[in-house]
Amino acid sequence: MSIIQNNIKERRSRFPGMYEDRPIEKDDILKVLSSANYAPTHRKTEPWRFKVLQGSAIQALGEFLVQEYIAAEESPSEFKTNKIRKKAVKTQTMILICMWRDPEERVPEWEEVSATAMAVQNMWLTCTELGIGCYWSSPKAIHNMHKHINLSEGETCLGLFYMGYSSVDLPPYERGSIDDKVEWIS
User: Fold this and answer.
1) N or C: which end of the chain has fewer CB within 10 A?
2) Are 49 and 100 a contacting pair, CB within 8 Å?
3) In a structure prediction context, what are the per-residue pLDDT tens digits for the chain, which is 186 residues long?
């Protein structure tokens, strides 16, 4: 099996509770981001934009997410607020996944979102190859991210990409048969 096929099958969500207390080298972060830059993009709009957070910037974002959660809930759960804080403490690097909408709107917005998602898939596969655990989260607060992080005009936050080294072995994830999901038409 090729390396790419193996990485596709091995790509898994690894959550901050599984992360080791070990920083991710800048060169590895740049490899991950560079792979994102090769995602397909209609009309070469390259809509993906990323903001890399480390150290106290992650802690500050964690507190922002806690405050947004508390403000949005009628009865906020202490368990949930602690969980949000813990994710920030355990994460070595976080990348805000943003999309910059082509101001000329030459392609439908869903294509820009899809191109950004493909960029993130490239990041995920590269993390898998480098032994870096990661996952994409889209909390409700991403709609208010502009209150915490400077976003350019036309830029939207689509989620948070948590990253950290993880040596936790996960059981294989079994998928249903592709035969159940394909219809051949002649």
Assistant:
1) C
2) yes
3) 688 888 888 899 999 999 999 999 999 999 999 999 999 999 999 999 999 999 999 999 999 999 999 999 999 999 999 999 999 999 999 999 999 999 999 999 999 999 999 999 999 999 999 999 999 999 999 999 999 999 999 999 999 999 999 988 888 888 899 999 999 999
Separation of alpha carbons 181 and 176, rounded Å: 9
DSSP sequence for 17-75: GG--S-PPPHHHHHHHHHHHTTS--GGG---EEEEEEETHHHHHHHHHHHHHHHHH-SS
What tokens does 103 get? 């101001």
